[in-house]
Amino acid sequence: MKKYTVNEINLKQFTFTIYKTQIGIGILSLPRDLSETAGMDGWISLLLGWLLAILFSVLIIKVMEKHPKDTLFDIFPKYFGKWLGGAVSVLWILYTAFSATIAMISSIHIIQVWILPNAKEYVLMPLFMIPVYMATKQGVRVIGRFGEFVFLFTLWMPMILFLTLYESNWLNLIPVGQKGWLPILTTVKATMLSFLGFEIAFMLYPFLQNKKAAYKGVIYANTISMLVFMLVTVLSYVRFSHQVIMEYLYPTLNLLKLIRLPILERFEIIFLAFYLFILFATVIPYLYMSVFGLSILTGKKDHVPYLRVYTLIWLVLPFFFVPSFSQITALSKFWGNLGLCAAVIFPVLFWAYQKAFLKLRKGALR
Hints:
Helices cover about 75% and strands about 0% of the residues. The protein has 16 helices and no strands.
């Protein structure tokens, strides 16, 4: 009997949850991040980052398929023992909790700067926590359905960017490789930071109905993310020069400011209001993985008590800590470095360790 039948998700929900975890705050500054080192060749770095993201996603599935009925937190004790396995679980719990917290703080900051400059953080936090708490409380099945809903509900948002193509200059993209290949390769790290979120496959895999389709799911998710990233990046490059892009903190939002509709100005405000659903879809999977990991680690069947503790901490946090833009930027960079360890380095090391461990155990049983 399957352990997680109640919370099973289908391939679409698996795919869209990973995709929506990847498409978050980072896409708003992505053109600037890529242009900073690779110039107008950042789109090439994006393609390389996409291939690497697929590679590491496949490694995650290879690790998990050895134990299709177990979560990551169930697997650790089998390979590392009770205490060391528990320590590794704690590290993952802390990483996902930190990721959810930074994503939430960054979301509040964006809304505060662009839409509600006079609103206080302690007012916005409870409002943001309502949908996050409700979805996280219900478990993976609802999170998967929410990811599917957000994908369909926001499907128009990348398409609306085509309205900015007037007065574009495609000559900005040439010559290709104008700075050489070294800056392009160096920028791959920045593209990998944008693709972070595929490590959520560690959590989602045991709940997937058709485990054999997991490879398709991670490839689809990373490819959809790449297409959206590419669209935003290329449209920013052909609409702005390199010098102009470097002047903007969030070139994607500045791109939206160019859209003028007959009955509507400041379209970016409307866009951000809808974009909140995407921001929530980034916070929720990380938060659930953290509280779910705590419930597994402590042997509890219900993750909701831990979710309430997180909620209380987040509600109180704005009264004691209101980060500035520079602090948020520093925390985001730290989150990115942690993410590279969790999504890139860890799968490689764990896959190699798992392979050696199983081979040695098989040899010992002969």
